[in-house]
Amino acid sequence: QVQLVESGGGLVQAGGSLRLSCATSGGTFSRYAMGWFRQAPGKEREFLVGISWSGGITSYADSVKGRFTISRDNAKNTVYLQMNSLKPEDTAVYYCAAETAEWGPPRTSISFYDSWGQGTQVTVSS
Q: Which end of the chain is more exposed for a tag (fewer CB within 10 A), N or C?
């Protein structure tokens, strides 16, 4: 069973930056595609960005393309989300997720991800 723990959320002003981390344990991180999602109050959880097991392939939602960057460090079993130019509409709980079907590409559909963290709150003030 893979465990994921997000950190790095908080309160930031519009235009600011945050870096989220997702530390994993209990699995073979270097074989998994990873993704970041978010869920705002009253809304469905939405895909933001995914990264392949090697880090060589990434996929971004249009809403964050050019502002958010995903990366991973397989030696540290950690995936990161660098968020720049934050907007009030980015306010949400942010989740990382793993697709434990090994060696896969980054998926955009939530249904492919089978292990989830508990989430970290990001609040962007105007």
A: N
Residues of the chain whose pLDDT is less than 50?
Answer: none
Q: Which of 65, 71, 27 is nearest to 52 (CA)?
A: 71
Contact status, residue 77 vs residue 4, Cβ threshold 8 Å? no
Cα(4)–Cα(21) distance, integer angstroms: 10
Cβ–Cβ under 8 Å, residues 88 and 122 = no
Q: Residue 69 and residue 126: Cα distance in Å, rounded? A: 22
User: What confidence score (pLDDT) does residue 101 get?
Assistant: 87
For the CA atoms of 15, 109, 99, 102, the dihedral, rounded to the nearest 10 degrees, stands at: -120
